[in-house]
Amino acid sequence: SQQGEEDPQALSIQEGENATMNCSYKTSINNLQWYRQNSGRGLVHLILIRSNEREKHSGRLRVTLDTSKKSSSLLITASRAADTASYFCATDRKAGTALIFGKGTTLSVSS
Amino acid sequence: DVKVTQSSRYLVKRTGEKVFLECVQDMDHENMFWYRQDPGLGLRLIYFSYDVKMKEKGDIPEGYSVSREKKERFSLILESASTNQTSMYLCASSFSPTGEAFFGQGTRLTVV
């Protein structure tokens, strides 16, 4: 069962532009996380936002959470070629047992 | 530097073989997870463990088993490998079950 679904599936932008990807989920959550995966590697944690938070920043990353719409967005400002990767949102599977991940958004940043 | 280490980056096995994928973490985490990742399907949870000798089925446990004899080690076992188990396998650990997860580098398994 996949709780979160990212949108779009793929995104291509130029260096310097902003990239926005969205995540929608189905049931109530304790927190929502975003991860990044470089090609063929493991995932790296980017940011965690709790259900009682609406917005969080980390460097060039900005995450918003709208629990009424069951959705989150990840904004990467001033994108760089090194941001080229897949991005996944992750939420609770059920009752705090494990994380489940969406299918991801593949971001390509060209110079 | 925190680390989750998977024993192999690439593995090629024959159909019917028993396959062991090993994962070790050095962060004293109680929670460990195995996922598989396939194109178009994202990550799917196979098994997880919240304590030594404890295990819970994830969303796709069929054809797999796990072993957790020590806190730092979580093994995924393919009892009789099949071609549809060709995939990228990712191990992760975390302090709390749905907290920040730390991933290994992945094992790309090919079953021929």
Q: Could you characterize what this model shows?
A:
The complex is a heterodimer of chains A (111) and B (112). Chain A is mainly β and 111 residues long. Chain A is 0% helix and 56% strand. Chain A is built from no helices and eleven strands. In chain A, the strands form two sheets. In chain A, strands 2, 4, 5, 9, 10 and 11 form a six-stranded mixed β-sheet that branches. Chain A has a five-stranded antiparallel β-sheet with strand order 1-3-8-7-6, with no helix packed on it. In chain A, a hairpin with a 5-residue loop joins strand 4 and strand 5. The model of chain A has no long low-confidence stretch (mean pLDDT 93). In chain B, strands 2, 4, 5, 6, 9, 10 and 11 form a seven-stranded mixed β-sheet that branches. The radius of gyration of chain B is 13 Å and the shape is globular. Chain B is mostly beta strands and 112 residues long. In chain B, a hairpin with a 6-residue loop joins strand 5 and strand 6. The relative contact order of chain B is 0.33. Chains A and B meet through strand 4, strand 5, strand 9 and strand 10 of A and strand 4, strand 5, strand 9 and strand 10 of B.
Helix and strand string of chain A, N-terminal first?
EEEEEEEEEEE
Let me know the largest β-sheet of chain A: 6 strands, mixed
Q: Tell me the helix content of chain A.
A: under 10%
**Count of strand segments of chain B:** 11
Please mark out the parts of chain A with pLDDT under 50 across 5 or more consecutive residues, or reply none. none
Uncertain regions spanning at least 5 consecutive residues of chain B: none
Give the largest chain-chain interface (CB within 8 Å): A-B, 27 and 30 residues
- Rg estimate of chain B, integer Å: 13 Å
